[in-house]
Amino acid sequence: MSLELRNVSKVVGNEVHIFPTDLTLEDEGFNILLGTTLAGKTTLMQLMAGLQRPTEGEVWFRGRNVTGVPVQQRNVSMVYQQFINYPNFDVFENIASPLRVAGVNGAEIKSRVLAVSDLLRLTPMLNRRPSELSGGQQQRTALARALVKDADLVLLDEPLANLDFKLREELRDELPKLLSGRGCTVVYATTEPSEALLLGGHTAALAKGRVRQFGPTGTVYRQPANLESAAIFSEPPINTIAVRKAGHRLLAPGGLDWPIPGPLASAADGDYMLALRPHNVAIKRRRETDTPLTGNVLVTEISGSESVIHFELPNDTWVSQSHGVHRVAVGSTGTFFADLGQAMMFTPDGVRVKGGV
Amino acid sequence: MARITLEDLAHTYFDPAEGDVEWAVRRLDLEWADGGAFALLGPSGCGKTTLLNIMSGLLRPTRGRILFDDRDVTGLSPEARNIAQVFQFPVVYDTMSVYDNIAFPLRNRGMAEAEIAPRVAEIAELTELTPMLRQRAAGLTADGKQKISLARGLVRPDVNLVMFDEPLTVIDPHLKWVLRSKLRELHQRVRTTMIYVTHDQTEALTFADQVVVMNAGEVVQIGTPVELFEQPQHTFVGHFIGSPGMNVLPAKIENGTALFGGQPVEVANPVAAAEGVVELGIRPEFVRFAPTGIPATVTNVADAGRYRIIDTESRGHSIKLLVDEGEPIPSGAVNLGFAPGQTRLYRDGWLIGGAGR
Amino acid sequence: MNKTADNRAWLLVTPVVLLVAFNALIPLMTVVNYSVQETFGDNTFFWSGVTWFEQVLRDPRFHGALGRQLFFTGTILLIEIPLGVAIALTMPRRGTWVSVCLVLMALPLLIPWNVVGAMWNIMALPDIGLLGHTLNSMGIDYNYTRQPVSAWVTLIAMDVWHWTSLVVLLAYAGLVSIPEAYYQAAKIDGAKPWAVFRYIQLPKMKRVLTIAVLLRFMDSFMIYTEPSVLTGGGPGSSTTLLSIDLVKTALGQFDLGPAAATSLVYFLIVLAVSWIFYTLMMRTEES
């Protein structure tokens, strides 16, 4: 039995921050809250922590109703996007601070701080002040403080967002190892789908104050229950297009006419929303069955090993993601190859009917 | 516009007379071609901001010269150098309208209003600020303000160089990619020499034709995005660019053969007998499971959606590899194959047979 | 925000409520009470309505004091604000001299008000005072106890000496909060020092200057101790500001009713001007 939200909602003034939500978190592994800024991730976390009181509904933790129990009376720790440490304490005292508040004796404080600082590779810096540390070390210190008190509930609110790219990668790899086997429930908020995927565990896809889907991270990614959930879990943005299925053809506005791919063939004729992740639209033909698409190139982005190209279809903007560095001039006409066999089909109001594995 | 040459440049914030001081920028010779789009990429503390301030004239180098074309500008102030800079945090003149902000540098130089108006109109069109010209600059969003900063630089007909210092730091994540590619597009149209300073590989590789990678006060590689990915000249570049970064493994050279853990490995660069620390570099993209090869054990599998990042351990060293979605992953004892064309030897961090320091 | 609902929290504000009651509400109510009654000093009171207010508002003596008060406040604002900003601009923004400057600037603010009055009183004595003697030996006929002009000059000089530091410190706080990038951008844009002041420093100081003007207005409008020690309102009534006039009426003549009415009018003027000023400043802020 872990943390459970029972019909929890939060309304501030006339604004609904969280619509009535039922959610039971997992004890093992990460519980990831994935969504864009203002999706409600922070509010949801604060409701879980007891920093905010739900307008309606109940919060249960390990079989006990903790609605309205203030955060001081719960064993909760939290790490924020900003590196929050006591500027006048050295690293040791920063990590020790929750234990001092709890009145733990000196010898035990020392051994517990040392154990955590070893784990987070902070031992050589124990005598330094936060201002003398790099961003990564500062955030490690904040994490150490969260871990040292053996909290029952650990809440991480975009803890890697303010770190340099490489530090982020490093800490992201370490986090699951650091938090596993501690007997705590972990909640992790992020805006980045790739981060959610790599951390694994379970994911709640959030949009506009609603949990659109909750389940094992891989399942939410591969079998999104609805179009919104698929869109939340796609970076670059997922490609969508309104189509009409007629026999063995898919017809789309602007005269697009594609043969229907096998996995979608059994759907009844009618109107659908088709969604295809960007990596299924490549700059090179990979299969005989790939469907060529041409369009005006809007944007080319290159990361270390990938090229992301945004281009125009008659009514929509689509994105192609390919391996390697491909610089396509903005404003030119590009041809891209879509593997429609990987597409997912949703009803016009966004419920998945076909596709996905 | 100008070609910019840095000649035997070095800088320290301490007194060099004291002998063994820490250098923020170590000996550096570099030429930025006229009209190019460059990026200066490196982790925080690598000296890139110091170099930026030296080029803009806010800092006088301890040693060396800066030439704009053939003119020595080392001792000249920023305004005498005719450069423009876009800062990390947007700088706009709050009390002025967007129009007055853009016109400001021209008015300071005594240009007639009749000349200013068409010039401002042209640059506003280019930076998509036309609809906001009459608004007060203070009321714009962060990306709007950064556009104003940029427009103030571009509006001067004689500007030699535009520099960007982490310009997207305060931009909303979902707007970042738009602005990122807009900047490149803009460069293609105005063809002013531009230097983009950042720690973010995607920003650097998207914007620039030539990327200068810095680490610990020195330039480790200058190259196109493809070169940086495919032929890292230094293990740091291999690690810093690409996600996850290059695997770097200890190696030995015996009788003209490269060995990892006593086992011969075929490499792409010359295997000269070498002093110093010899290492083997191979990107996770180019490691495969193979029937025979380097013995290893799979320790972790992280799902990244369209591929998986596999952590393996071989003789006490971690080797990462990428496996596409849907491909099988063997368990237990496995063998790894390194693509020979993409496996390279490094000595003391530098590519053997490469351009070196 | 994150509130924990607990009604016991009200207990925590009780001391403040009590303090405000004793400090402000009760005295104010007493004054209101006096202002609408007539007394002959034997603790018997008669209802007099708005008589005192009518009398005060028509009284040439009140008009004179109010006029002098407005002149005083206007003059010191016109001198202290620009002077304070100018001094703040010349102060170093980093290095060892920063703390030295700040301490020097803070010194006048640390001196008790009556001591300031006494200091200037002695310093300006025409025969033995450093200032008075120097001026006279330079052939300037200066005697603040006899000539209204001398008295005014001394009064204003004293206030400027005492309070410009406050403006300096506030303006300085505003200046140091301007990020370095603004100055760099201005350099790159080729802005002249005047343009840097006009478009960067002044707009960024606006908030603190608003506070400085407001504080200086309220303080100078209610000034009592220093002029009372220095000139006692003289020579004649030439430097009798509102507060001095009020004390003369209330304690000198024991006209409690008119004094109470005067103080209420006085209070309302300060309140109204401050409010108008504040609203105007906030309105320009938003637009």
UniProtKB/TrEMBL annotation, chain A:
<dbReference type="InterPro" id="IPR015853">
    <property type="entry name" value="ABC_transpr_FbpC"/>
</dbReference>
<dbReference type="InterPro" id="IPR003593">
    <property type="entry name" value="AAA+_ATPase"/>
</dbReference>
<dbReference type="InterPro" id="IPR047641">
    <property type="entry name" value="ABC_transpr_MalK/UgpC-like"/>
</dbReference>
<keyword id="KW-0813">Transport</keyword>
<keyword id="KW-0547">Nucleotide-binding</keyword>
<protein>
    <submittedName>
        <fullName>ABC transporter ATP-binding protein</fullName>
    </submittedName>
</protein>
<comment type="similarity">
    <text>Belongs to the ABC transporter superfamily.</text>
</comment>
<keyword id="KW-1003">Cell membrane</keyword>
<keyword id="KW-0472">Membrane</keyword>
<dbReference type="Pfam" id="PF00005">
    <property type="entry name" value="ABC_tran"/>
</dbReference>
<dbReference type="InterPro" id="IPR027417">
    <property type="entry name" value="P-loop_NTPase"/>
</dbReference>
<keyword id="KW-0067">ATP-binding</keyword>
<dbReference type="InterPro" id="IPR008995">
    <property type="entry name" value="Mo/tungstate-bd_C_term_dom"/>
</dbReference>
<feature type="domain" description="ABC transporter">
    <location>
        <begin position="3"/>
        <end position="233"/>
    </location>
</feature>
<dbReference type="InterPro" id="IPR003439">
    <property type="entry name" value="ABC_transporter-like_ATP-bd"/>
</dbReference>
Automatic annotation (TrEMBL), chain B:
<dbReference type="InterPro" id="IPR012340">
    <property type="entry name" value="NA-bd_OB-fold"/>
</dbReference>
<dbReference type="InterPro" id="IPR027417">
    <property type="entry name" value="P-loop_NTPase"/>
</dbReference>
<comment type="similarity">
    <text>Belongs to the ABC transporter superfamily.</text>
</comment>
<feature type="domain" description="ABC transporter">
    <location>
        <begin position="4"/>
        <end position="241"/>
    </location>
</feature>
<dbReference type="InterPro" id="IPR003593">
    <property type="entry name" value="AAA+_ATPase"/>
</dbReference>
<keyword id="KW-0813">Transport</keyword>
<dbReference type="InterPro" id="IPR015853">
    <property type="entry name" value="ABC_transpr_FbpC"/>
</dbReference>
<dbReference type="InterPro" id="IPR003439">
    <property type="entry name" value="ABC_transporter-like_ATP-bd"/>
</dbReference>
<dbReference type="Pfam" id="PF17912">
    <property type="entry name" value="OB_MalK"/>
</dbReference>
<keyword id="KW-1003">Cell membrane</keyword>
<dbReference type="InterPro" id="IPR047641">
    <property type="entry name" value="ABC_transpr_MalK/UgpC-like"/>
</dbReference>
<keyword id="KW-0547">Nucleotide-binding</keyword>
<dbReference type="Pfam" id="PF00005">
    <property type="entry name" value="ABC_tran"/>
</dbReference>
<keyword id="KW-0067">ATP-binding</keyword>
<keyword id="KW-0472">Membrane</keyword>
UniProtKB/TrEMBL annotation, chain C:
<protein>
    <submittedName>
        <fullName>ABC transporter permease</fullName>
    </submittedName>
</protein>
<dbReference type="InterPro" id="IPR000515">
    <property type="entry name" value="MetI-like"/>
</dbReference>
<dbReference type="InterPro" id="IPR035906">
    <property type="entry name" value="MetI-like_sf"/>
</dbReference>
<feature type="transmembrane region" description="Helical">
    <location>
        <begin position="12"/>
        <end position="36"/>
    </location>
</feature>
<keyword id="KW-1133">Transmembrane helix</keyword>
<dbReference type="Pfam" id="PF00528">
    <property type="entry name" value="BPD_transp_1"/>
</dbReference>
<feature type="transmembrane region" description="Helical">
    <location>
        <begin position="160"/>
        <end position="178"/>
    </location>
</feature>
<keyword id="KW-0812">Transmembrane</keyword>
<feature type="domain" description="ABC transmembrane type-1">
    <location>
        <begin position="66"/>
        <end position="277"/>
    </location>
</feature>
<comment type="similarity">
    <text>Belongs to the binding-protein-dependent transport system permease family.</text>
</comment>
<feature type="transmembrane region" description="Helical">
    <location>
        <begin position="264"/>
        <end position="281"/>
    </location>
</feature>
<keyword id="KW-0813">Transport</keyword>
<feature type="transmembrane region" description="Helical">
    <location>
        <begin position="208"/>
        <end position="225"/>
    </location>
</feature>
<feature type="transmembrane region" description="Helical">
    <location>
        <begin position="70"/>
        <end position="89"/>
    </location>
</feature>
<dbReference type="InterPro" id="IPR052730">
    <property type="entry name" value="Sugar_ABC_transporter"/>
</dbReference>
